[in-house]
Structures are given as structure tokens and as C-alpha cells.
Sequence to fold (150 residues):
Amino acid sequence: MQRRKLIAVLAVAPAIWPRAPRAQQTYRVGLLFPGATPTEKVPQVQSVLRGLAKAGYVLGKNLTLEGRGAGARPTASAVVADLIDIAAERRRLEKDLAAAEKELAGTTGKLGNDAFLAKAPADVVEKIRGRQQLAREEVDRITARLASLR
Fold:
């Protein structure tokens, strides 16, 4: 009989024993934004915080906010650097650069030819000027990309 009383007391004790206060857990919420790193003043962040407050999560009490924006790019580039073959990328860019320089030289040659400019319709000359500008921009972009790979 003593054994049954002991088992009954041990079974009921956890239910009536005053619970020791536990340290409150803090939750971290990460927000990703395409622009700058978000703050609590951004309307979208305020609406997220209001929704979390309704569920019992309060910023600074049991909730921390971690915002990431476009400024957090270095981690992504470090991951990409491990995934690409830099030598192969350099070879591909050098090939693209040669093609862009050839296009630039061709359009510059046509626009430098007075006989061509005298005979060609105005719309054709404008198209070639547009192609020359695009080729110049492409050469600059590829040159900058190659410089970043060195």
C-alpha cells in the first residue's frame, strides 16, 4: 500500500509543483530586401512586426530583427567564386571581347568612310551609330569584368 501512495504522489507532483521560471527564448527574424537594409521604419517591416506582435512576439523582448539588403553581396560573390572556373570564364570573356572589338572596328570604319556616309540613307547611318555605341559599351563592360577576375 505504501508503494501505491508513493507512486501516486510522484505522478501528481509535477502537475502541482510550482514551475521554475525558464529563460525566455529570443527568436530571430531575417528580412531580405532588394534595396537597402530594412529598418523598423519601413512600412513593410512595420506590418510584419504588427503581425508578430499579435502572435505575442515583441521586438526587443523575445524577438530580434535581422535585415539584409543589396549591400550584403560579398557573401554571394564568395560562394560564386568557388563555383566557377575562373580560367574558363577568362577565356570566354576574351573571346567575347575580341568579337566586340571587331564589331567596334567595323562600325568605326564605316562611319569614318566619307563615301559610305554620302551614299547611305540617314536611318542606316543611325543604326550603325547605335551599333557602334553598343559595341563600345560591350567592350567597356567586358574589359571591366576581365579586370575583376585578375
Observations:
- Strands lie at 27-32, 63-68.
- The chain has a mean pLDDT of 76.
